Amino acid sequence: MNHPQTRYRHLALVTLAALFTACGGKIESTPADAGASSCTGSEATTERLFLQQVSSTRAIVKWRGPADTLCFGTAQAALGQQVVAATTETGHKEAVLTGLSPDTQYFYSVGGAPAAPTGQYFSTAPVTGELPADGNTHIWIIGDSGTVGSGLPPEAPNVRDGFLAYNAANGNENLDLFLMLGDNAYLEGTDKQYQEAVFDVYPDLLNKVALWPTIGNHEMGSFGISTSADINSYTTNDPDETATYMPYLDIFTLPTQGEAGGVASGTEQYYSFDHGNIHIVCLDSQVAIRDDTNREAMKSWLVQDLSANTADWTIVIYHHPPYTKGSHDSDDPRDDLGGIDQPIFDIREQFIPLFEQHGVDIAYAGHSHSYERSWYLNGHYGLSTTFDAATMSEVDGLGQSLNGQDGQIYQQISPGSGVDDKVVYTVAGSSGYLSHMKGVHPANAASLESLGSVVVDVNATTLTARFINQAGTVGDWFRITR
Q: Between the chain's N and C termini, which has fewer beta carbons within 10 Å?
């Protein structure tokens, strides 16, 4: 199978103990001899500190700064294992922690101190297919959040604080997953813009929960209007930025070989992973989708991945929404700008049928700077004028679309078809700033001009998704039961 062109990081050898892995020749850090005596350093100052690929047995801690060791353990005051990090060509340090126990809290110190700073920890995923000890997986989703430092209205901190207020008022549960829907750093996704819009805005979350992002149009530079299918054609107008390759792919270390579950994609542009009884798929609706060969490769991989999936719940993320009348219109490919919104049509026409055939439950996009949430849909692949609620949504006895709330809760196995063939599609692109909507798409149950983010809570039998506005209150919600 042909995959989109992917450049893997070339890591500098920082210790003779470092071993090559099967991940494209990447050199991984390895634990030193276990024992508290090896953790005799001091906590280091980092420019950015974040978690990647946290699974049930493995995690990656990344940072920038002079320190090249990390100590970790299950007791905050007695860290017992040391890891020597590898250094990437972009100056990131990568410490790969292996042999971890599932559903377990770990504390860590960058610099190798014997004790971890307060608030510096993460929890591993449960065993695949199982629930966490508390019975609930708590997910935060933001889209188009990267406005801080861009000159656009910097609303992301307000949206963040709205989520934190909601969370504090509802049990203050630790996050298990943090998903970003693209346009994570405006206007061109440069390394500097990522520092300002991501690492400086969410430091107290990124050091506790793994970030799983997708590629938006602004990740490809060119002020967000690139229609290139080549990741090496990245361009920026920043004279201090010399990258000709997407900084996104150098900043993040995303699974290519199924390191966190799912079928290996062979590329960081799209991937999947498991977290307990949830399977999550990330698609590249900006670059890979624009080339016929690469798009077919992504579709083929998606079918393989979803066919192998046995999780209770399946979530898909990408950037371009199939049903929107927000700041973008899903009826308009924007031919005046070279077809910048053509991926909307490709997602709707070529990928949504695959979602329906393989039991996807919910799908999230950004791109439009609004909140929009669909009915429980099957079979709507055309323009908004072709939508027929009676045949394309889950309906009541009177032929009216169910809204997923109260007495109209969605059932994963559709009473109408007897199979798991319907999906709720959400546009959550108002986490950084808000734009006026162009109207209301008939496939959508909710359409809000409101800043905010999404919280998804998942247990064995129920998935509940809530839109949380910047005031920390629920603006919309729906539920699916198994």
A: N
